[in-house]
Amino acid sequence: xxHELAKLKGIKxxxxxxxxxxxxxxxxxxxxxxxxxxxxxxxxxxxQVGLPWCFGWVTPKDGGDSSNxxxxxxxxxxxxxxxxxxxxxxxxxA
Length: 94
Known about the structure:
The protein is mainly beta and 94 residues long. It has one helix at 3-9; strands at residues 16-20, 25-29, 39-41, 44-46, 90-93. It has a 3-stranded antiparallel sheet with strand order 2-1-5, with no helix packed on it. The protein has a two-stranded antiparallel ribbon with strand order 3-4.
């Protein structure tokens, strides 16, 4: 997550966090980095977070769950492609 989102949520690098979507929630270890930057869409600040796909973290041992627990099971009505890589979540300190 970005430094800006971490500051907004009171999260520090290495803190345990809960990431929730409409479908589920996972526990993870926060990595605060300059590689993510907030951006604006129609005047609203949007924050992007990233999670490991499929299997979660093997190292560190308690690094977190699979992000598949969060993904929606619906997709585009025309192409039938599931929206498994872009969906809304809330992040909070665990």
